[in-house]
Amino acid sequence: PIEMMAALAIVVGLWAACAVATPSAPLQCTLKPGIRTNGHDIRSFNTSTAAECCAACTNTSLCTYFTFVHSRQLCWVKADGTGGTSDDKDCTSGSLPPRPPQPCTSDTDCNHAGTCADGKCTCDAPFYGNSCEKFTLYSYKPGEGGLEIPTGNTTWGGSVVEADDGTFHMFAAMMSGNGSLATWLSQSVVAHAVSTKGPQGPYTFSDVALGPRGDGFWDGQTCHNPDAKRTPEGLYVIYYMGSTNGGPGLEFNQRVGTAWATSPYGPWTRANTPIVEPGPKGAWDDGFTTNPAPYVYPNGSILLIYKARSNEDKGGMMEGVAFAETWNSTYIKLTPDKPLDLPASCEDAGVYRAPSGVFRMLTHCGCAGQYMWSLDGMHWSRTTAPQPWCTDIPYTDGTNGTLATRQRPKWLTDKDGVATHVFTGVNRPGNGGMGHTWTMAAAVTMPHDS
After folding, report:
1. Are 343 and 365 in contact (CB under 8 A)?
2. CA 20 to 30 Å from 291, out of 69, 138, 237, 285?
3. In sequence order, which residues have a C-beta less than 8 Å from that of residue 121 and are 6 or more positions away?
4. For residue 361, what are the β-bridge partners?
5. CA-CA-CA-CA torsion for 292, 296, 300, 302, nearest 10 degrees?
6. How far apart are CA 434 and CA 359, in angstroms?
């Protein structure tokens, strides 16, 4: 694609800044000395007073809360206060009143999740709100959609492709040996499941597409977090994380690679080497690479979002971008110097390209989903705060429910590139975060009986 090749020609020190705008009228902050507000951070500023911190929040378009740390003269502006508050004598926190909706002047004001006309945003499903900043997914219960193996192995998120015969094929992470999610790093395999009832499923387990290959292979022990795609020629390609024993161990041996076949039932041929290696020492991704999220262009080239961790900051996960002319050619990192502008709690991207040409990404941030958009696949912008998606979730039967965890979002689009479903790895309350998890299907619009 022209825009991607142009991106390769520039120096790609990516820094996706948060949107900042000066409000049309001053907003009054409410200050609370001795209080620390916990929530999703947008960024920090060096300020001298809590009042200056208030001004920084006022001038940051996504900011609704802030905390000023007196001893460090540091201001954290926040998209929300979902973590509640705590007592801290070194802090002063505050919040802004709701911002009045502003008429849109372009699709950018609609977060490229819809179109602007006559000062109003018309949002694409599943987005809604004055600026298309929110989204709703309609989830299927077990037995009605998704993949659950009630008395067998745990699954944890999957992606779906449609075969030429109209059947749908899910490739999901599955913990072998009846293991719980806690065994993902040592027991995960890529399971293949089939639905003859539509993209939502329910899916029936068919076979293990990818299992451990043993010592000497980069995926000798683990195959996890698959994202399957079809090339313009009809080939099935699974992008996945593999790991093996030895050296730094399973965690820091994680790498991104591919397997391919002419049928969703295999047999699968695997790459002998990973396609995305860690960066050089000191790079943001010099620890390991994992959890790929590819988009296949109509001409067969690949945009790849991947997750990584650095050896210097082993507590934070980050997302980056790579590009290849074909699925089996060299992948060039477009973000070697800086990762995407996301909070450290946001990870595991799913990505697609809308018919308008805009790229849309969904990550999970704990028990919340964060939507981002991009015009070139390389420079990404966030909308408002990560949106909670584990509580009061709407089911397709009209009821509501609660989940303990919800991660690994993967989009499914129709033949025109319109998003139809999102698949996530979920767990029910009471099972514990690492209990018997399963893969949930959700529609972007409420299904209706035909």
Report:
1. yes
2. 138
3. 104, 109, 110, 114, 115, 129, 130, 131, 132
4. 351, 372
5. -40
6. 32
List the structure tokens of 370. 């964060």
Beta bridge partners of residue 188, listed in sequence order: 175
Name residues whose C-beta falls within 8 Å of residue 200's C-beta, 6 or more positions apart in sequence.
Answer: 140, 144, 145, 146, 421, 441, 443, 447
Residue type, 26: P
CB-side exposure of 70: number of CA atoms within 13 Å? 11
Split at pLDDT 50, 70, 90, the class of 41 is confident
- The answer to whether 370 and 342 are in contact (CB under 8 A) is yes
- How far is residue 74 CA from its own chain's centroid? 29
What SS3 state is found at 251? helix
- What is the per-residue pLDDT across 235-261, written as a single tens digit (0 to 9) for each? 999 999 999 998 889 999 999 999 999
Burial track 265-284 (b if 16+ CB lie within 10 A, e otherwise): ebebebbeebbbbbbeeebb
For the entire predicted model, the pTM comes to: 0.84
* Greatest C-alpha distance within the chain: 65
68 closest CA partner among 98, 46, 86, 97: 46
Half-sphere exposure of 189 (CA within 13 A, CB side): 18
Centre a 10 Å sphere on the Cβ of residue 436 and count the other Cβ atoms it contains: 20
